[in-house]
């Protein structure tokens, strides 16, 4: 950590506030009253040992809410007040056990209100005994500012002669010197074993200020994305337009190849269509009209075409030789059904065949 301040809460209103300044993971100095704090300082408040009861228990790994509910069951037999009326905080699991802290909600609210009146919102609120190191065996005693505390492997309390003798069963706790105590406290707040600021007393997260520089960069990126999308659409449209022009140019070139030499400039496609119409003839043209006539004649038994004459007006004169009048009527009716106007000449009987002409118009 760069800078931190341990702020020891007084056990009553008659005692002053005390603090330790920590910089670069080492004790720097101490004082009474309120220190001069900066925005870069991390403030960790220390709750008096006589106001917090500590327990250790093996709690299954589960969510924070479930762990607190299980802890309330564990401490319910050890408290005179109902567990649901107390503030219960649960620490991180270490060696299969978790530390449980129990404190009156009114004390928690009073501490945080007193800190808020002084413009302090502590990053954590740690019970005083947890600043001492965990002993491998026996107990440690430490003189913290304004209070003396004792800690065992699964216990921690305010040092009082009668209470200490009862808990330790006459075993004298070993005293920590000032340097060892400060070193242990620095390590303890770097990663607190338990933070009382949980549940209703959890620290509210401040909303981060809007980074307008980042917003401007995001707006520029969004604009560039839109421009790139528009550029892609423009390129696609231009590509389609150039492709269509190339197709039209190719069609005009092919159409001009079908025109006779010496044809003047103009719309080659239109001139080719006019030439095709001239070659095909008026009406539906000779080819389509003759094909329709031959298809109908072939479908009528004992009927054949003997001559064809295509007129300038689009009419096709068909000379027929038929077996009889019934075949002539069939051919005429089928031509009419195919969309042609049919005029018949007088058919004559000759050599057992009926001959005559039909004029077919569109």
Write the layout of secondary structure elements.
Layout lengths: L2 E6 L9 E6 L2 E7 L9 E6 L5 E5 L6 H12 L11 E4 L7 E6 L1 H13 L6 E4 L12 E5 L2 E5 L4 E3 L2 H8 L5 E2 L2 H13 L21 H46 L10 H13 L4 H15 L3 E8 L5 E7 L2 H13 L3 E4 L3 E3 L2 E9 L1
Parallel strand pairs: 1-4, 4-8, 9-12
Antiparallel strand pairs: 1-2, 2-3, 5-7, 6-7, 9-10, 10-11, 13-14, 14-17, 15-17, 16-17
Helix pairs in contact: 5-6
Helicity level, as a percent range? Answer: 25-40%
Please outline the major beta sheet.
Answer: 5 strands, mixed
What oligomeric state is this?
A: single chain
- Shape summary: rod-shaped
Uncertain segments of ≥5 residues (pLDDT<50)?
A: none
In total, the number of strands is 17
Name the structural class: alpha+beta
Integer count of domains: 3
Strand content: 15-25%
Query: Helices and strands, in N-to-C order?
Result: EEEEEHEEHEEEEHEHHHHEEHEEE
CATH top level of the largest domain is Alpha Beta
- Compute the separation of the termini in Å: 102 Å
Strand order of the largest sheet: 3-2-1-4-8
Helical segment count: 8
Instruction: Return the CATH topology of the largest domain.
Output: Nucleotidyltransferase, domain 5
CATH architecture designation of the largest domain? 2-Layer Sandwich
Notes on the protein architecture:
The structure is a single chain. With 362 residues, the chain is an alpha+beta fold. The protein has helices at 64-75, 105-117, 161-168, 178-190, 212-257, 268-280, 285-299, 325-337; strands at residues 3-8, 18-23, 26-32, 42-47, 53-57, 87-90, 98-103, 124-127, 140-144, 147-151, 156-158, 174-175, 303-310, 316-322, 341-344, 348-350, 353-361. It has 3 domains: 3-201, Nucleotidyltransferase, domain 5 (2-Layer Sandwich), CATH 3.30.420; 212-280, no CATH class; 281-361, General secretion pathway protein M, EpsM (Gyrase A, domain 2), CATH 3.30.1360.100. The model has no long low-confidence stretch (mean pLDDT 86).
